[in-house]
Amino acid sequence: MSPSPARSTTQHPTLHTQVDGMNYRPDPITVIATLSHIRSARKSPKSVDAVNVYAFTSRDGIPLHVVYIHHVPGRWDGVREVIDVYEIPTAALTDL
Fold first, then answer.
1. Torsion over CA of 74, 22, 16 and 10, rounded to 10 degrees?
2. What is the 3-state secondary structure of the chain?
3. How far apart are CA 74 and CA 2, in angstroms?
4. End-to-end CA separation in angstroms for the chain
5. C-alpha distances in angstroms, 16 versus 2, 24, 29, 34, 86?
6. Given a cut of 80, is residue 2 above it in pLDDT?
7. What are the pLDDT digits (tens) for 30-69?
């Protein structure tokens, strides 16, 4: 049985971080770590001012969930703004 297109090798969550407008290289991250970070962000209103989840289809036709986390200014010394964006293939969530 061949794997479905939704289970390709690109089906792992990816974390994109932006600090003060500077983008950092996307990092692969496990589904468990991703979910843990999102739960933690939702429980931290003093350090995170926005957690938004969007569901849509990628350019490749793969269903995705994108989670946007905006950390409050001043959370880290010498840093004005930190944004984390998680790209999570829906298949990775439903395979749990």
1. -170
2. CCCCHHHCCCCCCEEEEEECCEECCCEECCHHHHHHHHHHHHCCCCCEEEEEEEEEECCCCCEEEEEEEEECCCCCCCCCCEEEEEEEEHHHHHCC
3. 49
4. 20
5. 31, 7, 10, 12, 6
6. no
7. 999 999 999 999 999 899 999 999 999 989 899 999 999 9
